[in-house]
Each structure stands twice: as C-alpha cells, then as structure tokens.
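Practice set, problem 2.
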Amino acid sequence: MHLTVLVKGSKTQYVPVHPAALSAINDYLDEAGHRDDKSGALFRPAHNNVPGTLENAMTGGGIYNMVKGYGLKAGITVDGLCLHALRATAATNALEHQADIAYVQTWLGHSNISTTRLYDRRKSRPEDSPTFKVNY
C-alpha cells in the first residue's frame, strides 16, 4: 500500500504506508466519511470559514495549527515548532532507525543529499558530543 502525494514542483511521489498508519487512516476514513472519494484529498479540514472548501486538502499551515492546538490542549509548548521542524524530526527519526539517507532524501523530495543532511539533527544532540564519550 502506498499514498500518491503531490509535492513541490507539481511532481508526484509514491510513499509506502506503514501498517500501523494504514490502520489509523482506515479509522480516520470511517469517521471522516469520504472513503469513496478516491480522487479527492485524503486529509481535509474538519471545519473552515470559506464555503465550499472542506473537500480540499489540508494546507501545511492547517496541519501546523492542528498540531500546535493539540499540543496546547495537552499542555505542551515547543519553542521553534514549525513545519520544517516536523520534517526534520521525521527525517532524524528515520535515520536513527537505520533508514538509508538516500531513501530519506527521496522521501523528503530533496534533489541534493546535502539538503537532507541539514535535516539530520542527530549530530546536534548534546548527549552525543565527544565531551560525554571521554572516560574521566
């Protein structure tokens, strides 16, 4: 199973779906009520103040607002939270779990692997510093 994703530059990308994510998507489609609309967007706004736009895809800003809103409801605030931070977190998590950086590059839609390396936050963790590797 995969998702067909329209990415920057009007390109199409095919992203494999993890079984756990597929289960959550099926639950979502049961609740959302647009399972049979195969040509429409998968993730759509639940409410919008612009008439006739609920069938459109959620925007990056809409996803950001949703994540931030749920975080605030849970009492979580994160300095620097933005869409690129979420992408960097996903990339770093994949790399921490032995994903090949070339696949992560394709996954993120980067044409140059050096851009993907900018998203890799593994080297910025203080606990990984040589300072903590020295035996005193």
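Problem 2, part (b): a different protein.
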Amino acid sequence: MNGATHLLATDLDGTLVGDRNGLDELLGFYKNQEYEVSLIYITGRHFQSALSLIKEENLPVPEVLVTDVGTEIHVGLSLIKDADWEHRMLQHWQPEAIDRLAASFDGLKKQEIPVTNRCSYYAEDAKIVKKFEQQLVSAGIPHKLIYSGGRDLDILPSGSGKGAALEYIIDKFEAHDAKMLVAGDSGNDIEMLTLGLPSVIVGNAQPELLESPESPMIFRASKPCAAGIQEAWNHFHPR
C-alpha cells in the first residue's frame, strides 16, 4: 500500500455491506476511475468471520484488514498479522482479570468469540456499563471501553480501537498524502470518523452516530451503506 494515492477505510457490516445494489455500483465506480483505490477494512468481526464475509459478499480482498474493533491488523496479499501492532496490544492486556470482574455483574453476558485479544459482552443497561467501567478503573486494569448499538460492549487493550489502528496504518505505509475516505455506521466507528480525515456517516447509521456533533470533515449521507460511501466520495473527491 506504500505510495497509495486514494484510500477507502471502511467498516463492513452496515457500511460497505448491507445493500447489494449500492455495493455493486460503488465497486463499479471505483473500477472506472483513472486511479486505484486501496482498500482498508476495519471491522468489529474477528479475523475468520471477516474472511467469511469477504467470501460470502464477493468483496475485493483489502490491502489491510483490521479486525476485532482495532485490536488486530493483517496486511498484504496473505493478510499476515502485523507483529508490531500485536506486541503493542498485548503489553498490558489482562483479559482474565476483565472477565472475572464482568462475571460479578448480572447485566453483562459474555459474547462467545474465538479470540482473546478483546473481551466482549452483551449489555442493555448503560448504567451497568458505567459501573463496570468504574470498577475497571478502580482495579487499575488498563483498557479501552466501547459501547455501541445499546447492546455491544467491548473491552479492548488500551491504545487500541479503530481510530488508533487507522492512524498506525497511515503512519506505517506513509499514506498521509493520499486522498482518503473513512466510512462507518455505529458507535465503535466514532473514533475513526473523528480523526479529522474526510469521513462519512452512512444514511442507515445507528442513533449514537446520527446524534454526534456536526463537522465539515464528516459527511452525513442520505443513502445507506455503500451508496452512502459513493455519495461521500463524490462530495470530498469530485472529478
């Protein structure tokens, strides 16, 4: 991805994926441009789940795949795990301690996912989430908490998240001068949508994004999913 001139960094579910016609139109639009658009997928899915979605939806294989809400980065044609980022994530990570503490809260139900680089729960009461975070802080457990959709609670290594992962990728591949668009639809996308880069909240976004502050760098699409991405691309990067 070194030397990329145009970049799309996008969430998958509900953003790039969710409207087949819009997706086909967006991919056709990019194919017909004089430039190549390098793809970065940034998803809450774990790695194998993301690969399955890419296959099911016949998506182009990205140059970078960020999974597990920004806690893993996979690069290149073979999507090899980025060792430097993994080392950074594991330095102060305490998943066992987080799970033990979560087990003491009746309002938290652990999500069964085949990874240890994040702790994920179902939580429908924001007050319980707040109390849990207070306990994490009191216990001195380094973490990043992301609550999205009024249900999904992710406890991540400190210094992680979709925004931090995207900044790392831009630095690693020296892509600061590329024309870029960042796209998302839910609360765990807020961090990457507010980096000051050209960004789009797609038209079908969840309430926590629709209620976020206005910014000239955040385009609010009227169309859903991939059609909203194309709408925003034309706004920020007109021919």
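Answer key, part (b): The first helix runs from residue 20 to 31. The chain has nine helices and twelve strands.
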